[in-house]
Amino acid sequence: MATVVQAHERECAVCTNHFTTPKILPCGHLLCRQCVISWLDSKSDAGCPLCTCPIVEHQGNSSQNSADVADTLPTDSVIEAIVESDHVLKSNDMCTICDDVIAEYICMQCLEKMCPSCMKIHKKMSMSRSHDVESVSTVTPERLAASRPALCADHVTEKAEFFCVDHNLAICTPCFCNEHRACLDVKSLDEKMKSAEDAFGSLREKLLTAEDNLKKAIVNLNVRVQTADVTEQENMALVDKTCDRLQSMVDECRKVLKKLISDSVSKFKKSLCDVKSELEKRLGKVTSHKHLVTRATTVRPRPALIHAAQTLTDRVNSLDLSDELEAEPLVNPSSEIMKYCDDAVKEIDDELMSLKRQLIVDEKPVLVFHETCGTNIRLSNFRKTARKVHLNMFSNCVIFSSDVMAVNVLYEVRIDEIKTTAGISLLLGVTSVSPTQLTLLTRSCELKDSVILMQNGVSVKDKDIRTNVTNALKFLKVGNRVGLLVDSSNNLHFYVDGQDQGVAAKDVPQPCFAFFDLCYNVSQVTALPTSRRT
Known about the structure:
This protein is of the alpha+beta class and 534 residues long. Helices cover 39% and strands 16% of the residues. A hairpin with a 4-residue loop joins strand 9 (377-380) and strand 10 (385-388).
């Protein structure tokens, strides 16, 4: 796989000249060492000029000057070699031996430019006959950089055959036999090169996977932003329709409700945008480091590759490659608006003030029961309390969460009232059926793609699973809280009073909604604020 470094990629974003001692910033972008110093001197909190990520990630040592900061940043030896090779190719076009004849060839090892006559002589000499000589017009800076022989760190004219791990140096055979014979860890240069290449391959796969996951996460966030826009439009239309019906009596109500919707969606969109911004920063770092790894793997100046492999391995390991960032759930106020407007016709003043107080104060994410939960349930307390109206066991009393369940978030209700002393019988579970698709006569046993937990602790989807659901449901009483949580492995957990009772079912359908069935003697429950669990 060949990678060509474009001309603009060899230029510093600050000085716009070819890189001189290019330094790798924490985000993966490059700046000249002197440009890093001048950029940091311009303002104390200067970030990368390309992506604004901090150049100094840890501010513990505030007395550290700009030069020290620049020197602690790793040098990109690969791009440095490419820039030097590009300079060699574009500098003097004359033969370095004849001086007055245009050079048509270049030795890939000696880096000498030659005319045709000198090239023939070069190929006949015993010390250079094995060298690769190619046409100047076909040689790229990348190929020239990659063809450079590995030279001994002490004897720069000698070919390096070994690598001293103790001193982190490429060395020649005489150095190995003399200065480094007491070193404990000296390996063949080819062996270390192979190890470095394997490390780059592993890093590249890791970064490619992270890049793909981050891109997918950002796409999902964009979809959620679009959903928020649609929700905002729908709620705005609902407000307009209600306010038209109430005419002049609810002019003030119209403004309050619109502000409620706008604030709710703005808060949700801001949360999504914050998550998106963080993921984009991570993506920028991953993409930059992937490019560094890809380029280093392709060009691989031999001794520099060993240093680059360790440097980039440390850097990639320090990156946050996670694509899982949760935004605050969207609190859809449409149900509160409908209830508020219907009641306002009867008791406009009292209901308006009560709803206004509730909408302003309640900022926590709440499990809100869906408005089509059934004909035998009365919703009150701004649709957070569900009360059974007809107290016979055949009445339809299934209530649902209004939004898709988020991963590792607990959805729970508090049992407020029961009608017998024989104990509590309660069905609860999850379903992939959207509340908008439910009918007023839907019962829990009729839900498709569902997992139902009942008093015997059996999951309808997987009858082989037994958990503590049996005992926990048997001894419930008024005031107890029961909840459901879906983890990142799609396992359904059952909670009582905030305590995890274990996995109640595996491989639950996704996406899913929480539901609670008051089909027996539980007559009233109240939804509680959701909470994130690790």
